[in-house]
Amino acid sequence: MSEKEPLVRVVRGVPTAEELAALVGVVVARSRPPASPPPAPASAWARSGRPTRAGLVSGTGAWRTSGLPR
């Protein structure tokens, strides 16, 4: 057990040093956890305070209808 097994082994071809470096870079980048967790989706309470595009109407009298209850 004195000799460690290699992490990456080339099965076919003869890659250049640059190709091996690119492969190792991708493997290392993929093995790390993301830097920060993805943002949580907005709650229903937070969404309720945002204006919706569906209820907005443009044109004559739009300013008046924007203040009316739906």
Automatic annotation (TrEMBL):
Taxonomic superkingdom: Bacteria
Region feature Disordered, mapped onto this chain: 31-70
Molecular function, one GO term: propionyl-CoA carboxylase activity
One Pfam family it belongs to: ACC_epsilon
InterPro entries reported for this sequence: ACC_epsilon
Compositional bias segments (type: Low complexity): 42-51
This protein's name: Acyl-CoA carboxylase subunit epsilon
Organism: Micromonospora radicis
